[in-house]
Amino acid sequence: MQFIDRADVQVAAGKGGDGMVAFRREKYIPAGGPSGGTGGRGGSVFMVAVESLQTLLDFQYNRIFKGENGKKGAPKNMTGASGADRTIEVPCGTVVYDAETQAILADLVTPGQTFCVAKGGKGGLGNKCFLTNSNRAPDYALPGKEGEHKFLRLELKLLAEVGIIGLPNAGKSTLISALSAARPKIADYPFTTLIPNLGVVKKPTGDGTVFADIPGLIAGAHEGAGLGYEFLRHIERTRLLLHLVDITSEDPIADYITIQEELKAYGRGLGDRPQILAFNKVDAIDLEDEEIGNAIARLQEISGAPVLMISAVSRVGLDELMHQVWLKLDEMNESEAEALSAVGVL
Length: 346
Prior knowledge:
Layout: E1 6-12, E2 45-50, E3 64-66, E4 86-91, E5 94-98, E6 104-108, E7 114-118, E8 149-156, E9 162-165, H1 172-179, E10 197-202, E11 208-213, H2 228-231, E12 240-246, H3 252-266, E13 275-280, H4 290-303, E14 307-309, H5 318-342
Parallel strand pairs: 1-3, 2-4, 9-11, 9-12, 12-13, 13-14
Antiparallel strand pairs: 1-8, 2-7, 5-6, 5-8, 10-11
């Protein structure tokens, strides 16, 4: 399945039904008066977030969505039938933009969350509505109003609590495959992963947390280099970043700095996002080597945080890594709960 996280669509709500001109014609009731009904409302277009979809692939083939037109008013003061609404299913995490103004119309995160993207037109008034003391037989009605017509841009931002970041070939895909049931493509060359991969990692409490393997970050990613610009936005919703550095790299310190600079350059708070830092592929080097020891000490000094030592392939250090992830998420949950309590939300 292709991973499509952007799409342009066109939505058109239904036109309201026209009002009707009619007069009451019944035996023994002279001058029955106007009886034309109002037209029905045009169908609106809604978007709803669902868990069953993971990409915006469907919108590559179907880009136009319309609500049904309302029916014309009927005699005997009967209102025309309303047009059927159109509901469009999108993945959770879809942001809806007005393509012309670039304004955000909706951010559909929660399953079942619904937003009206185009409102149906009102039905036109029938001649019954124009009856007055001075106009006892109005012979006119109003046409139905046109429904809203919009050009929209859909953008999917994956929903994951933990984002795995690092330079290409740092072992991100290997790690997510070791921690979850995800099976991304893995090979010994850069840019093996061309799309974000999601995996559900089981917590000690039994419930699951979604991890995202974010591909393609290199120097200049925030400006479009590599694949980074296309997928940096998927990190925006993550609460915690798991930064992998390849300890077998020629300059692991420079690798770390490169990613940090890209996060800051992209903005949106990514540079300040909590991180857990880990040297990967430790099974391929001698930890007693002086040069390796200096690199570890230097990275701890620069980052101001402990550096975990792991090997995703041989699963060395993964228990400690996950222990730190769960501790950090628990700390963040407690801090958020205290902040909400302080303002009276909880």
